Amino acid sequence: MAPHVSFIGLPFRTIPFLVFQLQSKWVAGVLSGRLELPSQEAMMRDVDAFYSDMEARGCAKRRTHDLGQGNPFEYEDWVAEQCGLGRMEGWRKGMFVATCKNLADRPDSYRDE
Description:
The protein is mainly alpha-helical. The protein has one domain. It is built from four helices and no strands. The termini are far apart. It comes from Aegilops tauschii subsp. strangulata (Goatgrass). GO terms for molecular function: oxidoreductase activity. This is Flavin-containing monooxygenase. Keywords: FAD, Flavoprotein, Oxidoreductase.
């Protein structure tokens, strides 16, 4: 609907700089013509399906950019595949999961321990 507008870095509860890098590569590929966007109808179907899934899980629409719901690496792997890159390495996923657990277990000191 706005073909010359791109947003990088809106997601949260993810590995931020990896997401920024993947999104930047994807947007550059689309703008250069190397990658093609799905049709507007296909994108709208994906949006509708995404919001239906969120509603079924009891998630508010305001949490649209929260990538920590469900499979936290699904989005990153999808963008990487769109760019012709491999899925995120297992060690990155493991570090992210361990950091989230450390944050949940020690919210006041997780950076120090």
